[in-house]
Amino acid sequence: MIAVTRLDGEEIVINAELIESIESVPETVIVLVTKKRLMVREPVDEIVRRVLAYRRAVHGGIEGVALPRPPSPPVVE
């Protein structure tokens, strides 16, 4: 769970596992897997930092976190 602040100043706690995407339009919008959209005060990079910290705490380190991998270079024969 991570704490975020709605635009009206209300602090809420959301399940980080349910975050599908985070947009900056210019407010930060968190889209959950349920398609519910939450506008929050924190910038995108802060939300990402909180989610990664949550996952490290839950999974006991970075090895439990699925990070995107860069594309493999093309094979040249």
From TrEMBL:
A Pfam family recorded for this sequence:
FlbD
Enumerate the InterPro entries for this protein: SwrD-like
User: Per its UniProt entry, which superkingdom is the organism in?
Assistant: Bacteria
Query: What does the UniProt keyword field contain?
Result: Cell projection, Cilium, Flagellum
Q: What PANTHER family does the entry give?
A: SWARMING MOTILITY PROTEIN SWRD (PTHR39185:SF1)
Query: What's this protein's name?
Result: Flagellar FlbD family protein
Q: Which organism does this record belong to?
A: Thermalbibacter longus
